[in-house]
Amino acid sequence: RVLLSDDLDFTGSLAGHRPDATDGFLHGVAGFISTVRSINVVREVHDEQGSAVLYDAEMPGGTVRFAEFFTFHDDVIDTLNLHYDGQDYIAKGGQ
């Protein structure tokens, strides 16, 4: 929680665009954490303004690939764009 802005601007495959999404994002990430078995980072890129991470998440029903793009403001994440196949995520056990 300390890494997130109080008014996180989130865009995700299932949630769509949600300005001021900090609480909703924390709820969603809790569901992800409860089901993911492991994460394999494929590639990450960082600079002063943000980061991008491509990773495979091993779910109960198989692997789902994710790409996350973050921007930072005042040393916290203020925007997060999460890309993945939402239907595949659900089919493989995502919550």
SSE topology sketch:
Layout: E1 4-12, E2 16-18, H1 22-35, E3 38-46, E4 50-59, E5 62-73, E6 76-83, H2 86-91
Parallel strand pairs: 1-6
Antiparallel strand pairs: 1-2, 3-4, 4-5, 5-6
Descriptive keywords:
single chain, 2 helices, 95 residues, 6-stranded mixed beta sheet, 21% helix, alpha+beta, globular
Describe it:
This protein is an alpha+beta fold. It has 2 helices and 6 strands; from the N terminus they run ββαββββα. It has helices at 22-35, 86-91; strands at 4-12, 16-18, 38-46, 50-59, 62-73, 76-83. The protein has a 6-stranded mixed beta sheet, covered by helices on one side. The protein is globular, with a radius of gyration of 13 Å. The model has no long low-confidence stretch (mean pLDDT 93).
Order of helix and strand elements from N to C terminus: EEHEEEEH
Strand count, sense and barrel status of the largest sheet are: 6 strands, mixed
What's the Cα radius of gyration?
A: 13 Å
Overall mean pLDDT stands at: 93
Backbone shape: globular
The side-by-side strand order for the widest beta sheet comes to 2-1-6-5-4-3
N- to C-terminal distance:
20 Å
Helix content: 10-25%
> Count of helical segments?
2
> Given the helix and strand composition, which structural class is it?
alpha+beta
Q: Quick one: how many beta strands?
A: 6
Strand content: over 45%
